[in-house]
Design goal:
Number of helices: 9
CATH architecture of the largest domain: 3-Layer(aba) Sandwich
Number of domains: 2
Strand order of the largest sheet: 4-7-8-9
Radius of gyration: 24 Å
Largest sheet: 4 strands, mixed
Structural class: alpha+beta
CATH class of the largest domain: Alpha Beta
Helix content: 25-40%
Shape: elongated
Length: about 280
């Protein structure tokens, strides 16, 4: 269930190439007053960035390092959210951030994440030295295999701003070179790709509060004895399990198996009983 891959996303590494940041961090000036004048060379040495806290803040109880302002009930672009993968408070400052969290919650490869958990202090070279800047990322996440990544949900309008284009290469280089983690900028074209986002919202709605152990066991048993890929309809028919009116216990069990990473679902088409169930890695 590959929802997004920060290693191949066009805004993840291409716009923040560390070599580009390093080239901007070193410049050479040559005097051209006369052909015999000595050459004057000045080098700008890149300064190492720091994060507070040093572990990127990806720990239990982490909270936003930026102040969460009192809610304005006349605006519907921010709010408080909750998610079983969030390690601390999880307010969102835009609907785009909220939608990104939906993808993270439904991605079985992601173990946990924290919201605005640290400050990055980085430097941009100037003619007189280095200018100190501070950046707070939207999300820091940890994959189940131990990898860590830093994400920023930013609308395309803001990614085109000159101030952001000036800072982004240096932020990317700071994370990549100094902290050995990728920095990924995701815009609405990736986050709100449909029907993937809607499918992930459906998966979250079906996540168990109290496990239906019987339905899970029966669904696992049927899937183990059928040839994959198959469909939710075929698994439901083979399971022959009674469900309350208006519910489908097998459908919900399939959603939870996908959330845990036991199976893959086809996210490229809107979910229905015809949705294809695949073995992991297919």
């Amino acid at each position: 269930m590959d929802q997004f891959d920060h290693s191949t996303h066009p805004r993840s590494r291409d716009t923040g190439d560390p070599q580009r940041a390093d080239s901007q961090a070193m410049s050479t000036r040559q005097s051209s007053q006369s052909c015999t004048a000595p050459r004057e060379v000045s080098f700008f040495v890149r300064k190492i960035s720091e994060t507070t806290p040093a572990d990127l803040g990806l720990s239990a109880g982490s909270g936003p390092v930026r102040e969460v302002q009192r809610r304005n009930y006349y605006r519907a672009v921010d709010g408080d959210g909750s998610d079983h993968k969030a390690v601390g408070l999880s307010p969102f400052r835009s609907l785009l951030e909220r939608d990104l969290r939906t993808l993270l919650s439904a991605n079985p490869a992601i173990q946990c994440y924290a919201i605005e958990p640290h400050r990055l202090e980085y430097f941009i070279p100037t003619e007189s030295g280095h200018a100190r800047h501070t950046y707070v990322p939207d999300i820091v996440l940890r994959y189940r295999d131990g990898r860590v990544a830093v994400l920023d949900a930013k609308a395309l309008f803001f990614t085109a701003a000159k101030a952001w284009q000036k800072c982004e290469p240096h932020i990317t280089a700071a994370y990549h070179i100094d902290h050995n983690v990728p920095f990924v900028v995701l815009s609405e074209g990736v986050i709100r790709l449909q029907p993937r986002l809607s499918n992930c919202e459906i998966m979250k709605r079906h996540r168990y509060i109290v496990e239906d152990v019987a339905a899970l066991m029966r669904t696992r048993d049927v899937i183990a004895h059928v040839r994959l890929p198959t469909t939710i309809a075929k698994v439901t028919e083979a399971a022959r399990m009674n469900s309350p009116e208006g519910c489908n216990r097998i459908y919900t069990a399939v959603m939870n198996l996908a959330l845990s990473g036991e199976i893959d679902l086809d996210l490229s088409k809107s979910f229905s009983l015809a949705t294809e169930i695949r073995d992991r890695g297919q």
